[in-house]
Amino acid sequence: MLQHMPAVGGVAAEQGSGEGGLLTHADILGGAESDDWNRANLLLDTVETLEMIGPSVPPTDLLVRLFHEEGPRVYDAQPVRFGCSCSEDKVRNTMSIYSQKDIAQMTTAEGIVTADCQFCGAHYELDPKTLGFEAVKP
């Protein structure tokens, strides 16, 4: 089955073949991938509204009914929780590959080096003298 949508490029990126110039699966997929997409959509078209919203058919049973030939596996549910692993030590370790000249270019007008985690938003302010492979170790 289709694992991921390939990147759009070439003519398909300029003008899709769908209504109003929108991209369709045929613009992106070719060969066996296109056949898999069509097959998945044909199978999904057999699902009735009550199967999707009603409690009569559990989602795992519906999955097996539709895709039994592929041998689908259903894993136990796992709780979703916040899990950023950033820390000041990891930032310092990342900065250890830079020379003092490089660190000087990263230093702000206030005389600090700042780093922000793009995942959790943590903000770190570090003394440039303690960064880089030439840093003075305490």
Describe it:
There is one protein chain. This protein has about 140 residues and is mainly α. The protein has helices at about 10-15, 25-30, 30-45, 50-55, 60-65, 90-95, 100-105, and strands at about 115, 125. The chain folds into two domains: about 10-70, Helix Hairpins (Orthogonal Bundle), CATH 1.10.287; about 90-130, no CATH class. Strand 1 (about 115) and strand 2 form a beta hairpin. It is elongated.
Instruction: Show unreliable segments.
Output: none
Gyration radius (Cα, Å) is: 26 Å
Biggest β-sheet description: 2 strands, antiparallel
Strand order of the largest sheet: 1-2
The CATH class assignment of the largest domain is: Mainly Alpha
Tally of individual helices: 7
Q: In oligomeric terms, what are we looking at? A: single chain
The CATH topology of the largest domain is: Helix Hairpins
State the end-to-end CA separation. 56 Å
Amount of helix? 25-40%
| Rough outline | elongated
CATH architecture of the largest domain: Orthogonal Bundle
If you average the pLDDT, what whole number results? 81
For this entry, give a set of tags.
single chain, 138 residues, mainly alpha, Helix Hairpins, 6% strand, elongated
Short characterization:
The chain is mainly α and 138 residues long.
